Amino acid sequence: MESLKTHALDYIEIYTSMAKALAYWHTQALGFTIVGYMNFETGQPGISSYVLRSNDITLILTTTYPPFKSEYNEISSFIAENHCGVKRIGIKVSSVKEAFDRSVECGAIPLKFPSFHEDDLGVIEEAAIKFYDNSEIAFINRQAYNGIFKSGYKAYSKDKHENESLLISVDHIAAEVRINESGYWTKYLSDIIGTKLVQNIPKSSENETGMILNINQSNDKKLTLVIAEPDGYEKKSKVQQNIDSFGPGIHHLAFSTDDLIATAISFEKSGVDFVSFPPSYYDLLRSSEDFKDINIDELQRLNILCDREDETYLFQKFIKPISDRPFFLYEIVQRINGYSGFALKNINVLKKAEEIEIMNCNLHSS
Ligand SMILES: [Fe+2]
Question: Distance, CA 30 to ligand 1 centroid (Å)?
C-alpha cells in the first residue's frame, strides 16, 4: 500500500477549558468566523464545540463541563493535563480504512478504528492514530457529507459580524519533544503518513539555539511538522524548560498571511498581545547588508522578526499563549518570494541579541 498521496488538512481541534470565550476571542481578535457549533442548545449537554474558519483554516474549539459525562472523559482528562492545546489534526483522505490500515501496518499506534457517523446530511468516516504524547492524527473522509462539520454540529447563524479573514492557511505545526525523541517521531511520521525530513538542524557550533530541529514535510507541502528537541541537559534550553514545566507536545500553530504588516496592525487594534523582542535584535538587522531594503523601524514597532535566504524573506510574529497556561501559542508568518526555510539564522541573531541585552543589563547594574 502507498503512503498518503495528499496531506491537506481538514481541521485542527483544540481542547480548552473555555471554548465559548476562546471562540469569541478568535472572532474578535483574529478575524475567524464561527460557522458551526454543538452544545446544549443543539441537544448535546456536557459538551460545547465551535467550528471556526478563516480562509483555508478550520479550527474546532471544544470543551466539557461538570457534571462530567463519562463519554467526554477524553476531553476532561486532556484539559486536566494540558488546560488548552491541540488534541487532533484531521487529514483529508479518500479512503479512511485504507489510510488507517496502511499506517497501522507501518507502525502507527491505533487510537480509534475506522467508523461511520451518519445523520440526515450524510455520512462521515473517521479513524485516528497516536501523535506525540497526548494528540492524534485523524483520517477523515467527508465526501458524502453535506453538513457543517460532523454529525451533531449545526450551522451557526448568530455570527453576523463581518470579519476580515487575514489568516490564510496553516503554515506549520510545531512540537517540542524530549531528548532523543525527534528522530523517533520523524521516523514514525515518515513511516505512517509519508512525510519527508526536509531539513535537519543538528547540534553544532553554528546552531546556538539550544535545540535540534527536524522539519518534516509532505510531498505536496500541505503539511509541515516541525519538531524541536533540547540539544542537551547541562545548559537548560528554552525547549527543555518548557518540557520540564508543561510536558512535551504541540507547542504552536503557525498561520500564514499575505501581508504580516497589515495583519499585525489589525490584530494590534483588536488588543492581541504579542511577544516582543529586544531592541538589539533590530540593531543587528540594521547593521546587516542583507536587510538594507527592509524598513527595520516598522518591523521593530510591530515586533516582527525577519530572515533572508537569497532573494526571499520570512516575516514572523508570535502571539502570546492563547490560554492562561503559558505554553501553547500562535505564530503568524509571511513568506516573501517563496522563502521556504525555518529561520535558523534568525534564531541565532535573536540569541545574540539576547546576549547583548544581558550584557547591557549587567553593565548598567554593575
Ligand atoms: Fe514556528
Answer: 18
Q: For residue 261, is it left (φ>0), alpha (ψ between -120 and 50) or beta?
A: alpha
User: Which three three-digit cell numbers place residue 315?
Assistant: 516575516
Distance (angstroms) between ligand 1 centre and the Cα of 81 equals 23
CA 229 to chain centre: 17
Ion ligand 1 neighbours (CB, 5 A) are 174, 254, 331
59 and 148: one domain?
yes
Mark the ranges of the chain whose per-residue pLDDT is less than 70. 1-2, 159-162, 358-366
- Residue by residue, DSSP assigns 136-189 as EEEEEE-TTB-SSSSTT-EE-------------EEEEEEEE--TTHHHHHHHHH
Q: From ligand 1's centre to the CA of 11, what distance in Å?
A: 18
Q: Same domain, yes or no, for 202 and 98?
A: no
pLDDT of the residue at 359: 67
